[in-house]
Amino acid sequence: MPELPEVETTCRGIAPHITGRKVKAIVVRQPSLRWPVPADLPALLVGRKLHGVSRRGKYLLLGFSEGSLLIHLGMSGSLRLVAPGAPPQLHDHIDIAFSGRVLRYHDPRRFGSMHWQPGDPAEHFLLASLGPEPLEPLFDGEWLFQRSRKRQQAVKPFLMDSKVVVGVGNIYANEALFMAGIKPIRKAGSLTRNNCLALAEHIKFVLQRSIDQGGTTLRDFVGGDGKPGYFKQQLLVYGRGGEPCTVCALPLKEIRLGQRTTVYCTRCQR
Ligand SMILES: [Zn+2]
């Protein structure tokens, strides 16, 4: 599943190739994504010049002078740049053709989405209630400490709540909790200020490291048939249930917590 680092990598991968270019055509082969693709997308975009590409949480924002196109990659979506006239492959649902380059949306499971928001994209209903960006200074240990007071919820789903902080997906929550030595099932309200400082620091570390690794895949966004923006990572706990803890060698415990696979060390995490 594309997480924040993949979306950030996509943003950096496509931006230099389409920013400042005009939309020539929109081709919608399959409008049934998680939400129907707006039928007036061609009328809204064709002839408009793209001012820039940015990211908010896991949304990519294609900014035009009149508004923004919000793109979510869902469970299996990806964007790549192809040459005009390149034949579409299976699951290539939408083309946004710029002069000289086509931005092609591919999504086998069709859980992604495209929305048009006139004016300020932050006012869109999908973005309006989002918490801070994890890599920005507003998000820190003190923020987590204040937001977690009196919360009975387990700390892992608390971290994955986009109203608390955006973009901390399952992999990153597992990894950051291990690095901070905090058990995922602990009540968020029981975290000390020092726990929160460690957690915020490790969340920033795992996300930034992943973005840095993604940087090595940027050239994959242009040409070729590979899937851009997905990259292998060195993971300490996620996907390692039953294997030895990298610190104490005790087998890692795997449970379901809020329907998400959760892996932790019963000795190292308290
Ligand atoms: Zn351990």
TrEMBL record:
<feature type="domain" description="Formamidopyrimidine-DNA glycosylase catalytic">
    <location>
        <begin position="2"/>
        <end position="112"/>
    </location>
</feature>
<dbReference type="InterPro" id="IPR015887">
    <property type="entry name" value="DNA_glyclase_Znf_dom_DNA_BS"/>
</dbReference>
<comment type="similarity">
    <text>Belongs to the FPG family.</text>
</comment>
<dbReference type="Pfam" id="PF06831">
    <property type="entry name" value="H2TH"/>
</dbReference>
<dbReference type="InterPro" id="IPR000214">
    <property type="entry name" value="Znf_DNA_glyclase/AP_lyase"/>
</dbReference>
<keyword id="KW-0238">DNA-binding</keyword>
<feature type="active site" description="Proton donor; for delta-elimination activity">
    <location>
        <position position="260"/>
    </location>
</feature>
<feature type="active site" description="Proton donor; for beta-elimination activity">
    <location>
        <position position="58"/>
    </location>
</feature>
<keyword id="KW-0479">Metal-binding</keyword>
<dbReference type="InterPro" id="IPR010663">
    <property type="entry name" value="Znf_FPG/IleRS"/>
</dbReference>
<dbReference type="Pfam" id="PF01149">
    <property type="entry name" value="Fapy_DNA_glyco"/>
</dbReference>
<keyword id="KW-0227">DNA damage</keyword>
<feature type="active site" description="Schiff-base intermediate with DNA">
    <location>
        <position position="2"/>
    </location>
</feature>
<dbReference type="InterPro" id="IPR010979">
    <property type="entry name" value="Ribosomal_uS13-like_H2TH"/>
</dbReference>
<comment type="function">
    <text>Involved in base excision repair of DNA damaged by oxidation or by mutagenic agents. Acts as DNA glycosylase that recognizes and removes damaged bases. Has a preference for oxidized purines, such as 7,8-dihydro-8-oxoguanine (8-oxoG). Has AP (apurinic/apyrimidinic) lyase activity and introduces nicks in the DNA strand. Cleaves the DNA backbone by beta-delta elimination to generate a single-strand break at the site of the removed base with both 3'- and 5'-phosphates.</text>
</comment>
<dbReference type="InterPro" id="IPR015886">
    <property type="entry name" value="H2TH_FPG"/>
</dbReference>
<comment type="subunit">
    <text>Monomer.</text>
</comment>
<dbReference type="InterPro" id="IPR020629">
    <property type="entry name" value="FPG_Glyclase"/>
</dbReference>
<keyword id="KW-0378">Hydrolase</keyword>
<keyword id="KW-0862">Zinc</keyword>
<keyword id="KW-0456">Lyase</keyword>
<keyword id="KW-0234">DNA repair</keyword>
<dbReference type="GO" id="GO:0008534">
    <property type="term" value="F:oxidized purine nucleobase lesion DNA N-glycosylase activity"/>
</dbReference>
<feature type="active site" description="Proton donor">
    <location>
        <position position="3"/>
    </location>
</feature>
<dbReference type="GO" id="GO:0140078">
    <property type="term" value="F:class I DNA-(apurinic or apyrimidinic site) endonuclease activity"/>
</dbReference>
<keyword id="KW-0326">Glycosidase</keyword>
<protein>
    <recommendedName>
        <fullName>Formamidopyrimidine-DNA glycosylase</fullName>
        <ecNumber>3.2.2.23</ecNumber>
        <ecNumber>4.2.99.18</ecNumber>
    </recommendedName>
</protein>
<dbReference type="InterPro" id="IPR035937">
    <property type="entry name" value="FPG_N"/>
</dbReference>
<dbReference type="InterPro" id="IPR012319">
    <property type="entry name" value="FPG_cat"/>
</dbReference>
<keyword id="KW-0863">Zinc-finger</keyword>
<keyword id="KW-0511">Multifunctional enzyme</keyword>
<dbReference type="Pfam" id="PF06827">
    <property type="entry name" value="zf-FPG_IleRS"/>
</dbReference>
<feature type="binding site">
    <location>
        <position position="151"/>
    </location>
    <ligand>
        <name>DNA</name>
    </ligand>
</feature>
<feature type="binding site">
    <location>
        <position position="109"/>
    </location>
    <ligand>
        <name>DNA</name>
    </ligand>
</feature>
<feature type="domain" description="FPG-type">
    <location>
        <begin position="236"/>
        <end position="270"/>
    </location>
</feature>
<feature type="binding site">
    <location>
        <position position="91"/>
    </location>
    <ligand>
        <name>DNA</name>
    </ligand>
</feature>
